[in-house]
Amino acid sequence: MRRVYLDNNATTSLDPQVLESMMPYLEHSYGNPSSLHWLGDEAAAAMTGSRGQLASVLGCYPSEIFFTSGGTEADNIAVLGAARASGRRGRIITSAIEHSAVLDACHALKDEGHDLTVLPVDREGIVDPADLEQAMDEDVILVSVMAANNVIGTLQPLRELIDIAHEHGALFHTDAVQGFCRMPLDMRELKADMLSVSAHKIHGPKGVGALFVREGTPVSPITFGGGQEGGLRPSTENVAGVVGLGRAASLAHSGMDVRNGEMKRLRDMVIDEVCGIEGVHLNGHRSHRLANNVHLRIDGVNGTELVLGLSDRGIAASTASACSASSPSPSHVLTALGLSWDQASSSLRLGLSHHTSEDDVRYLLEVLPQAVRELRDAKRFNPTSA
Ligand SMILES: Cc1ncc(COP(=O)(O)O)c(C=O)c1O
């Protein structure tokens, strides 16, 4: 059976060139970067090299990059660390469709006595800058709004949101785990104070990420130990992972325009075709969306059953985020769009990569209608009379 991987918003394959760059640090160059001897020097040099690669991709100073264990930890340090560094109880503003790494960290701050404002989004998942303007006052410590959503792919008007936060003296963090190397993110132009990335969404290894912290931004550590990463993220460094992140970022960034162009073409081919099927709707914005994301609502179909039906046909897809796949409730992102429980439960996420071929898409377009028909027939659901 043909196998097609269309879950690239959950994770991506490891690029062989990335693996090759990591191998020396998994085999013979296993030193601790803090050690004073030659093996430690090799590891420290590898960390410096990767920091430089990431800094050049993001248009920032190497000293503004802090390696973490992934996007989750980067988000947690940004949110909790900024609140802690402020030395006061204030207000945190975020959006209703953030990843739980941000949303739950914000709720933890609320439990600690901070105020929390969760901004709504419109039907397409966009935060209205006017809502942020209205919510701002001098109590606000931090605004955290993601660059691109992991479920529906919607891109946010980041520049406007950042300007509003700064006009009121608040810090701005963006979770760019999905947007990194899939949209332009140059920190000389985008004035965010903090930005989170993760390697495994860009064909790098799992378990490594980074937080960009603009020079002078007050952030406190949230874990304690040795003084690694300027004391902001102590723990012996995942040298091979960090090397993989740097290499993956360089490769993905240099190929971004070409990769995005082709993914957009295939994405639009899927959207145009499947949205022609009765009772199939696109979630998220038609154009302000990630080049690799298609998110559908399919009347009369349970999303989980569809994912299993597609898996039987060799297609790997998902309903929403991988971390919420085992939860019986629909994704908070979908209910925030105003979808009912039923509508939110009828969803399918297809995540493309630059490895997705036109033949893969044609195979999807052949089997998806069959799988949908089968599930609808089993329920005697008729989309024309729904
Ligand atoms: C938007 C977003 N933020 C944060 C994360 C968490 O990243 P990681 O898996 O590296 O901890 C993810 C991963 O799914 C994500 O999509």
Architecture overview:
The chain has 386 residues and is α/β, with parallel strands linked by helices. It has two domains: 4-12 and 257-378, Alpha-Beta Complex (Aspartate Aminotransferase, domain 1); 16-254, Type I PLP-dependent aspartate aminotransferase-like (Major domain) (Aspartate Aminotransferase, domain 2). 39% of the residues lie in helices and 13% in strands. The chain has twelve helices and twelve strands. It has helices at 16-26, 38-58, 71-86, 100-111, 129-135, 158-167, 239-254, 256-274, 303-312, 332-336, 341-344, 358-378; strands at residues 4-5, 65-68, 91-95, 115-119, 140-144, 171-175, 194-198, 209-213, 280-282, 293-298, 315-316, 347-351. The chain has a seven-stranded mixed beta sheet, sandwiched between helices. The protein has a three-stranded antiparallel beta sheet with strand order 9-10-12. Strands 1-11 form a two-stranded parallel sheet. The radius of gyration is 21 Å and the shape is globular. The two termini are 34 Å apart. The relative contact order is 0.16. The structure holds pyridoxal-5'-phosphate. Pyridoxal-5'-phosphate binds next to α3.
